[in-house]
Write a structure and sequence with these properties.
The structure is a single chain. The model has no long low-confidence stretch (mean pLDDT 93). The chain has ten helices and no strands. The protein is mostly helical and 176 residues long.
Length: 176
């Protein structure tokens, strides 16, 4: 009935009475997190989802939401940690690989970022041009030819990709 404030104390009682109840639709942690989300209490939502993440070893949806909250807060360590937790549940889904790659890249962990972007490309991502472009950027200093191939693949996927065009023009100008 969308009475989120009224539902919070009930969820807390359920958690106190059945702290290990973490399966299916009757998961009080997810219900409480949902209440916090609808009330825009994102810090509290994050705390509840973290607790659920430590109790359950397969809280994939909670990990994805924690990734989103981490991105909004620009907490890249949390994004990376929760992406790794999501990948431990299911390593064949592209979304956590993308977030792990972005977080690793922002944190300066180039080898992890390269590995994540490469893996993402093998999983048929929504935006392969993005992955190719990031790989081109990361590989440029050490592997110019491989980087150029990824840049051209990015442009093949998205011919109007302005950043990729700019990068290609910069490389051309450097050669001249």
């Amino acid at each position: 009935q969308r009475k989120w404030e009224d539902a919070k104390p009930i969820c807390k009682v359920l958690i106190r009475l059945c702290p290990d109840r973490i399966d299916g639709n009757a998961n009080p942690y997810l219900m409480l997190a949902s209440c916090h989300r609808h009330l825009e209490e994102f810090t509290e939502e994050r705390e509840v989802l973290e607790i659920l993440g430590w109790i359950s070893n397969d809280a994939y949806d909670a990990y994805l939401r924690l990734i989103e909250l981490g991105e909004e807060a620009e907490d890249w360590e949390a994004v990376r940690a929760n992406a790794e937790r999501a990948l431990a549940v299911n390593p064949l889904l592209p979304r956590p690989h993308r977030h792990l790659a972005l977080a690793s890249e922002i944190q300066g962990l180039e080898s992890s970022a390269i590995e994540s972007w490469s893996t993402l490309l093998q999983l048929d991502p929504e935006d392969p041009a993005e992955a190719h472009f990031h790989l081109a950027t990361l590989l440029e200093p050490n592997e110019k030819e491989v980087a150029k191939r990824h840049l051209l693949m990015a442009l093949e996927e998205a011919p109007r990709f302005r950043q990729a065009h700019r990068m290609l023009l910069n490389w051309k100008n450097e050669k001249e």
